[in-house]
Amino acid sequence: MNHDLEIAYVGIEVPDPATLTGFFDQVIGLVPGESADGALTWRNDDKAHRVMVSPGAANDATVVAFEAVDDEAFTATVERLRAVGFAVADGTGEQAAARRVRRLARTRAPWGISIEIVQGLADASSPYASPLVPGGFLTGGVGFGHVVFATPEFEESHRFLVDGLGFARSDWLEMEIMAGLELEVNFYHCNQRHHTVALARAPFELPQKLHHLMVETRDRDDVGAAFDRAWATDLPIPNGLGRHDNDGMFSFYVESPAGFQVEVGHGARVITDGWDDERRYDRISAWGHQPLRQKAL
C-alpha cells in the first residue's frame, strides 16, 4: 500500500500551556519532549516531540505536521498540493530547525489550520519510557496517532486530503444521533493506521475545530490503566471503555482541560494492500463508549 506520510506532530495553542501538563503526563502517559519553537512539548515515543503546546487565544489545534517518509515523498506531496490548487510556502532553514526537522513546507487546510509537510523529525536524546505506559505507544511506521476535526468545509477538506495530500478514504459513518440531526464522518488513511485523519461534517463553524486526538498503546492493559487514572480525576469522560465498529479500536475518551478530547486506544484494524472495506457504517461503536461523566455546568 502507499505510505508516503504519517503524523509527525500536533501543535496546540492555549492561554496557559501549563494547564495541560498534568493531563498529558499524569493521565495520558506522555513524557516531556525537547525544545521546539519555544513550545512546551510532549512525546509518546523516541522522537524529540509529538505535541507542541504554545500560549495563545485559539484554545485549539493550530497545526498538524505530516512527515514524508523520504525526500521523494516530500517533493511529490508538495507538488501534488500545488497541482490541485493549494498554495504551499517553502519553509526556511531557521523554521525547519525550530521545529526540529530537516525540511519543511506550509499550506493551509480548508478546515482552518496550518498544515506542515516535514521530513527528518529529530530523535530525542533518550528513548521514551514511562512507568504509566510500560508497553509504550504504537508509532513506528504509522506516526503519532490520529486527529479528528469538525468542519463545514467538508467537500473541500476531502479534496485537500485525497487530491492534495494523497490520502485515501478507509470508510465512512452516517447515522442519526437524534431526531433531525445526522452525523457524517469520513475516515482517511495514509499508511497502515486505519485513519490518520477523520473529518466530521459540521453545520457551522464550531468553537473548537479539533474534536480529539488519539494515541494507541501497544498493550491493552495500558488502556485500562489510563482509564483508571482518568476516572481518578474530575475530568469529563465523554465516552467510557468500548470498541468502535469500523476500526475495531478498544478505547475511551477523556476531555482535556482545554476542551478537546483525547482517545486512548489499542488494537485497531490496519490497512492492508488491496483494502476493499470502504463502506458505510451506521453506528459508532460495536459496544460501550457510553457517556460517563459530563462537564459541570
TrEMBL record:
It holds the Pfam family BphC_D1. Residues 6-120, 143-267 form the VOC domain. Transmembrane segments: none annotated. It comes from the Bacteria. Gene3D superfamilies: 2,3-Dihydroxybiphenyl 1,2-Dioxygenase, domain 1. This is VOC family protein. It comes from Actinomadura fibrosa.
